[in-house]
Amino acid sequence: MIKLEKPQFNQGKVIEDCILNMRDGVGTPKERISVSKAEICIKSKEYDALAKTGRLSTLTENLKIAGGVTKDDMIKLYDNKFARKGEGGRSYYDAIKLLAPFGRCPFCGQRGVQTLDHYLPKSKFPIFSVTPFNLVPSCSDCNHDKLSETFNSYNEEPIHPYYDDFTDVVWIKAKLIEEDPVTFEFYVDSPKEWKYIKYERAKNHFEKFNLNNLYKLQAYEEFQGCFFRLKRLVKKGGKKLAVEHLEESIEEKESIRLNTWQAAMYDAIIQSDWFWEEYLPDK
Asked: What's the predicted TM-score (pTM) here?
């Protein structure tokens, strides 16, 4: 949804900062993580290479990590040393959250960033628990909707904000539902510039994160204010003036980001003959 700059942190340094104040000793989590650090760094580079070519779905769940570090070690490393305030990895956690422009969740483009999402879930891919490329700024709802789901093919992969660019053309569209009260349905259009698999991925992403339900709730409230403004404009200068206002509103939204539910809603109003010929004159 929203393209993000990829975090540029050294994986080895991230691990070193996280384990800095952990207890030393033979057989401790710190020792196991230290021994496995080289393997984690190698696999993180492989993750980057696969993500660049759309092949993350080729990775299989792997709970065993060369060097002896355990799944529990890696999950606790993230929870207790990377994400926890005051710990050595927290500066990376905060810096990754700030990668989202205006604090907007890149998965939905609507709600505010509150946490980090493991694109490949740490419960199934613990080796990537503190891999910056695998940590995406996210709102709590999108993080919850995604949970620990994995995917078996490229077209099932959710949009990866660091590697995928879905900002090239308008693909979020809306349909005005011709009933009182007016509501909207949001959906994914298939731009002619896209290959079919890109459309499939956008559609799957839209469904996975329940974006139609999110946007239609926001649109219902937005429409109330918009409607009264349009009614005044029609009285003042006819439909032409009202449509010009909507077109300007679309341009304003698209100047910030091409795909927003607001721009889609305004366009749906413009396209609805029922709205202009039957609904608005009766109100």
From this structure: 0.93
DSSP H/E element including 175:
strand 172-177
Quote the tokens at residue 103: 């604090």
Under the banding of pLDDT at 50, 70 and 90, the label for residue 1 is confident
CA 247, CA 187: separation in Å to the nearest integer? 20
How far is it, in rounded angstroms, from Cα 59 to Cα 225?
Answer: 48
Quick check: helix, strand or coil at residue 184? strand
> Phi-psi region for residue 209, left (φ > 0), alpha (ψ -120 to 50) or beta?
alpha
Q: Which residue has the tokens 């919850």?
A: 144
d(CA 117, CA 220): 29
User: What would the pLDDT profile of 18-59 be if each residue is shown by its tens digit?
Assistant: 999 999 999 999 999 999 999 999 999 999 999 999 999 999
| pLDDT tens readout for residues 201-256 | 999 999 999 999 999 999 999 999 899 999 999 999 999 999 999 999 999 999 99
Q: What single string gives the DSSP state of each residue in 98-120?
A: TTSGGGB-TTTSSSBP-EEEESS
- How many Å apart are CA 117 and CA 146, to the nearest integer? 9
Output the CA torsion sign for 72, 86, 17, 2. Answer: positive
CA distance 188 to 165: 15
